[in-house]
What does this fold into?
Amino acid sequence: MKPRSLAVHLSGALLSLLAGVAFANDKPPAKPATPTPPKAATLSDEVIKVGVLTDFSGVYSDLSGQGSLIAAQLAVDEATGGTGKLLGKKVELVSADHQNKADIAASKARTWFDVEKVDAIFDLTNSATALAVQELGKEKGKVVIVTGAGSTALTGKSCSPTGIHWMYDTYSLATGTGAALLKEGGDSWYFLTADYAFGHALESDTSAVIKAQGGKVLGTSRHPLNTNDFSSYLLKAQASGAKILGLANAGGDLINSVKQAKEFGLVDSGQRLAGLLVFITDIHSLGLETTQGMYLTEGFYWDLDDKSRAWSKSFFERAKKQPTMTHAGVYSSLYNYLKAIEATGTDDAGTVIKHLRTLTINDPVIRNGKLREDGRLVHDMYLLQVKKPSESKKPWDYYSVKQTIPGEQAVKSLALSECPLIKK
Amino acid sequence: MQVLMGQLLIGLINGAFFAVMSLGLAVIFGMLNIVHFAHGAMYMLGAFAAWMGLTYLGINYWASLLLAPLVVGALGVLIERLLLSRLYKLDPLYGLLMTFGLALLLEGLFRRFYGVSGQNYPMPPELSGGRNLGFMFLPNYRAWVIVASLTVCFATWFLIEKTRLGAYLRAGTENAKLLQAFGVNVPLLVTLTYAYGVGMAALAGVLAAPIYQVSSMMGSNIIIFVFAVVVIGGMGSILGSILTGLGLGLLQGLTKVFYPEASQAVIFLIMALVLLVRPAGLFGKEA
It folds into this structure.
């Protein structure tokens, strides 16, 4: 055994020891790969192995987690026609918990690529883990498709020839919600921002849109991640007199700030809330009474049309909840990845991605999807408004679709791109 | 100036919260000599007990305020009798590890069944709305929280410092063997103290339910602060934890006016300073 592979094995073993319970979702590691004799089909080995690497136990486990695994299984079933085989080779699905830590995500991905011969990794909720794994994918020449994270850096200065950003980024959320509210007279904003890279990105992307269209930003309160009590910040926001309170935070922080904004009477006194990253699970957990009237932007809503409803129904049967944008993205990205392997007859990253670039993707999730040079999948986004409790006619009937935002308007133009792959 | 007044009032409300939580910890540490890491989980259980009572059995907020601490207190009796009582002869570290493990188990269990986004506990209708104080909008519920917490804190202080039962408790803390020799049932006293301590955490949980989302993670978010409060106040000191809780709440309120990014760090800064200058805490007795 070469020293390098020994090190990989050792670090893998150590890691699984350290992580213990966290890797309960793991399938047993595959046998050490033996060199495969060259065959007619140009697949790299005997199985097509895909991994879902995401948060299974932390703050984002409701919006990705187990649901992402269910969505991935649906994609495998559908792409293989229920046989579990593609081009005569078995399709195997593995998963692991990255615990929202970039170092754990990177070492798991390294073990997957080097030892377990995983061909592609999906989901990667949490931008730090996504950036780390995409970088590794670039080094190893493996496909990494991000559906759960929102950082624009993934297709900006950290872009990768083998990385795809499938679902949404902070820019698309900011432009969608920001521009729509400005149009309705919401020209003065106060931001409540989670004090880390993601929150700052959301805030600055949205501020740019507001200022470009003549609006004003009256102030910002930056709160530490996982804050319980937002009352101090809400008092300041109230005193600022801003028409819109922009929530540049996510998960538990978002939920608690919305709940307390209601308590402190911000909504009743006419200030409006704009959630800059809201998932349907957040709305489900808060209830319509608290969230009604809120604007948000998403890349998918289960109740868009017959196609999305039909797919969401099969998801609901297994998961007992409607899919989030992340779940839907895992399904869509994995399905299209497998179909591309079938069409090209190879699992070579470059060939598969080249093929994906030639397509216009229209599936139950993505509408008018075109894959750009920088790895961004440009597709329609939706400006949504949360319904009043009286308008909601069935379980999970939460949004009315206010506007379909065409893909080109929802992404940063290539002319402004910092991606080194773009030749200018 | 208006902003300052508002922030100070908010700080006092949050401080009242800290006080109830840290008081339970202080009582348990004083009597059982256990660093009770499951305190956050008990707080979470209290909130969940209220939510489950409302959702499955239709028990309203006011009844929950009484019932949830009783249910969690009863669970506390079981935990103390079955688990903790076996550890008293060992190094206190074992109690810490046991309660830490217990907290992880309970949180994992609730995460498994209820996810992490949490459940919404509606505001009791009697306390919804609020009033404008001129310098800020004060929701009625927050006013209630501060009244309720302070009442509970000072009732506990009175119970321990001014009654016969409290005298037994304090004697038990000083010298359990001698107290037993006088014919007092010390193990029962210990069990009840523990049940009272976790009951207070559960009460804080019920008070928190309408403000924060009822979720499996709510306890782990607050426990670190509460420990800092107890350490600053002096481990085991009753009055110390009440006053420190309120004081730190105010300090945090002030920090949020001048430098919001440091609002969490400031508590730990104080903790570090106190440990350097008075290792036993502001109100603790030097060992």
